[in-house]
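Entry:
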Amino acid sequence: MERQTPKETYCIAWFKLAECVSRKEKERALGVYRLLSHSIGDEALATQLEGDILLSFDDAAAFAKYKQAAELYQKHKRLPPAVGICEHILTVHPQDKWALHKLVDLYQELGIAKKLKEVEKKLQNLEC
C-alpha cells in the first residue's frame, strides 16, 4: 500500500471537513478542523475558519471567533481581511457596535474617509 504525502493528507482533510459540514456533522467537523488548524500556519485564518464552521451550524459562537480573527489580523497589520470580517459580521448583525467601532479604527488606519464617515453615521444613529 502506498503512503500518502503530507500534501495529499492535507487535501483529504479539507475534503473531509467540507463533507462533515455538508452532512451537518458539527462535532466531526470541529474535530477535523482541530487537526487541520495545526497545519494552516496562520492563527488569524484558522480562527476565521473556525468561525465559518460554527456559522455554518448556526452557532452564535461564530461571531466571537470572527471578532478574535479580526483582532489577530489587525495585530499583524493585515487590515483588509480584518475589514472583511467586520463587514461580514454587519451583514448578519447590522447593528453590532463592536464591528462598527472596529471598522472606525480600521478605516482610519487605512485612510478610507468615505467609509469612515458612513460607519460613524451608523454609530451616531444607534446611539441616538
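Residues 61-127 form a domain with the Serine Threonine Protein Phosphatase 5, Tetratricopeptide repeat fold (CATH 1.25.40.10).
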